[in-house]
Amino acid sequence: MPTSPDVVVVGAGPNGLVAANWLADRGWSVLVLEAQPEVGGAVRSDRELDPAFVHDTFSAFYPLGAASPVLRSLELERHGLRWRHAPAVLGHRWADGWALLHRDRERTAAGLDAAHPGDGEAWLDLARSWDAYGDRVTDALLSPFPPLRAGVRAPARGGPHRRPRPGAHAARPGARPGP
Ligand SMILES: Cc1cc2nc3c(=O)[nH]c(=O)nc-3n(C[C@H](O)[C@H](O)[C@H](O)COP(=O)(O)OP(=O)(O)OC[C@H]3O[C@@H](n4cnc5c(N)ncnc54)[C@H](O)[C@@H]3O)c2cc1C
Known about the structure:
Elements: E1 7-10, H1 14-25, E2 30-33, E3 45-50, E4 53-56, H2 63-67, H3 69-73, E5 90-94, E6 97-101, H4 105-115, H5 119-131, H6 135-142, H7 148-158, H8 166-171
Parallel strand pairs: 1-2
Antiparallel strand pairs: 3-4, 5-6
Helix pairs in contact: 4-5, 6-7
């Protein structure tokens, strides 16, 4: 390490480490300073409860991390990263069971239908309304601000009649999504 690095990154959380690695990959000399004895910030894991058991210390699940273009570009799998997927992405408990969200939308719909016939098709309809945007929404979330490119491309693909209305669905949790 040169005595005077090109860049000093303060904090070895995920953002500092991504920035440091991205710059180092491009030939910059980088010094990372971390106040804690371990790197990782709020995504650090630990074995302090039981040496045989790795647990999260703060954050726990990273869908946007797995989708992040900059994280993918670092090819962390070559350095030991393995993404693990839970059997169901998430669940919501109700009086007589669970609503489970699976990676397979048909499976999610089947579960919803079993509890409340018709809800499965409503779910599929809502999912289809997002198909028009899908990766464009992810691009907009994960690209530098302001996400102009992803934002401009999105309407062209879906058209106004298929545009998802997350606010509308959130405001009317019991309502069926419209066409
Ligand atoms: C309880 C909790 C649960 C969360 N759950 C999730 C989740 O499930 N999924 C998800 O995606 N996100 C989750 N998050 C958010 C996620 O952890 C943060 O977005 C992420 O850690 C931010 O990364 P960062 O590098 O910006 O900051 P941090 O992770 O906070 O890292 C900052 C680092 O900088 C160091 N530092 C600070 N000041 C100095 C200094 N002056 N000198 C040297 N070092 C310094 C700190 O010690 C730390 O290591 C959660 C956060 C918390 C707190």
